[in-house]
Structure formats: structure tokens, C-alpha cells
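Open question from group meeting: does this chain pack into something compact, or does most of it stay loose? Before anyone orders reagents, we agreed to write out a predicted structure and look at it together. Recording both the input and the output here so the notebook holds the full record.
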Amino acid sequence: MCLEKISEEKIATEDIVVYKAVKTRYQQEHFEKYHGLPFRAKIKDLLVTGRICFEANFLYFCTDSPKLNGCYCRSKFGYAFSWRLDDAVELESVYINDEKIDISIITFKTPYYDAEVKVGETYYSAIEMYEDTIERALHSYAMYPDVSSSYIIVECIIPKGSIYYEGSFGGQPGMASDTLKYVKIVKK
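C-alpha cells returned:
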């Protein structure tokens, strides 16, 4: 997504607080050993049971709850529905074979380029414009964004001295800059 209706180039005279919507990335590769085993967990505020399917490096929760008719997997072990591991799964509630397992978030990814980012890190980018849009830069929201609940919102800073532009990003006030520091998670 590009920043549209852009302002003139500006230089930050102080740190500017902005927001970034990111996706989670879980370390799922070690879950192959759980394929076919029974689970219990809280998903979408429902306590559910079923069996685990590990397929194409993704962890699925197979169950008969129609509210969990999410991502499809081939091996449902006789259950009607499957749900792929995402932010709707309360990580601390997952038990497989009556044993609590650790599902850790490794990092976050930006929604459009799937670029891996970490809270506490600073990132840099060239700024490339085409007509009245900025197609390449570090895009962020100028205000707390109205986005899908599947995103995690991270407070960021455009550091003092950075080049930035103001405009519209996804229909909301946005910014594009050459530098962006991921500061803290403000919504999980």
C-alpha cells in the first residue's frame, strides 16, 4: 500500500510518534511431533477440544465447533472444522495430550512486504515516489489505526532528523519516512 496525497518533504524536528500494524510469526516448525494428538485450548473465547494437524509447516486445531471454520487443512481426523494458529488462539491455554505447550511469537512481519521486524530495532529505507504517491519507504499511521483485529499495533517513532512525508495510508492519516524505530506493542 502506498502513501497518497503526500505533503512536501519534511525533516523531523523532534521524535514523531506513529503506529504500525504488524502480523505475528510463530515458530511452528517444532510442532510436527504433535500431529494427530488431542488438544484443548481457548480460541476466539471458546474452550474447545479436538486434534492437532501439522501441515505445510502450520499448526491447525481440528474441532467440531462451527465458529472455528477457518483455514482449511486436509487431515482433520474426523472433525468438521479447522483453525490455523493465529492471534485468536490464547497461547497460554494450549494443552496437547494434557501437557501445556509453549507457543512463542518469534517476531513480527509487515503486512505488505512480509518484512521481519523486531520491537526495539530501528529500520531504514530509501524513499521512492511515483507521481503523487510514495511507493517505497517505511509507511506508518499518523494516529492509532482502525485496522482488523488480527493485527498487532506497535508504537513507533520517526526519529528527529529523519525525512518524512504526510499523506493518506489506506484511507487513514499516514506517514512515510526513511527511518522508523519500533518502540512497544500497544495492542495485542
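Observations to bring back to the group:
The chain has a mean pLDDT of 89.
The radius of gyration is 20 Å.
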